Amino acid sequence: MTPDLAAYLDRIGFAGPLQVDLATLTGLSRAHVNAIPFENLDVQLGRQTARGAAAVHAKLVAGGRGGWCYEQNTLMGWALGEIGFDVTRLCAGVMREQAGDGQIGNHLCLRIDLDGPWLVDVGFGSSLAGPIPLAAGTRHDAPFHVTLSQTDDGYWRFVETLHGAPFSFDFISAPADESLLDATRIRLETHAASPFVENLVVRRRDGERHHTLRGKVLTTASAAGLDKRVLATADELVDTLDDVFGIEMDEAATLWPAISARHDALFPAA
């Protein structure tokens, strides 16, 4: 299947002008993260994730699904390139600050060159609502507080903080090592110790709110704070995926025994 830009724009609900400018880039980024959730359901089901623009388009656009960073930013990068933006794929390392250089390749983000370089990332848990200039600074991206800085060893460090809990990734602005990205993606979708194999993670931005389902725990973040509840049944899991994240997948009910066992291991009864 050949990817279809019009179908992508319809999927994210974007009807604005398609110009190579910051307004279009911002509108597309915001529409994407509000429409397409981050999710690792294929990894949880033991399936290979989508590779390449055509396969990712078939899954996230035609199939109405979400995806993880490799899929989300591949789709976004393809769409921006079709419109005429100057797109560079970047290798990044989530939590490199804590775990070191071995993390590089566990995340894909994008550099877009307009009047200067901009960071675009629709795959970091669907949290970043728009492009940010590739320059040191801070911004409020409700409900997140975002900081971009340079490290002593030449990396850029993106940090988002949500009610006191920081989460970061490091990257350099040079074109990605695609072989490293591919090898890391395979490891993350297959290795038993991968956090994506161990845990169901689904995330979606909803305006200035942000929803995260991690295993059985659904958290909604807003300016008012964090609201948490624990899902109780497989049916509730399926309903939550549909109602909160827009994912229709009855098959997700088969994951419930493993999700429940993982929850009990992490949060043993007192």
UniProtKB/TrEMBL annotation:
GO MF annotations, alphabetized: acetyltransferase activity
InterPro entries in UniProt: Arylamine_N-AcTrfase, Papain-like_cys_pep_sf
Key words of the record: Transferase
Gene3D superfamilies listed in its UniProt record: Arylamine N-acetyltransferase, Cysteine proteinases
Family: Belongs to the arylamine N-acetyltransferase family.
Stored PANTHER family: ARYLAMINE N-ACETYLTRANSFERASE 4-RELATED, N-HYDROXYARYLAMINE O-ACETYLTRANSFERASE
Protein name, UniProt field: N-acetyltransferase
Species this chain originates from: Hyphomonas johnsonii MHS-2
Lineage: Bacteria, Pseudomonadati, Pseudomonadota, Alphaproteobacteria, Hyphomonadales
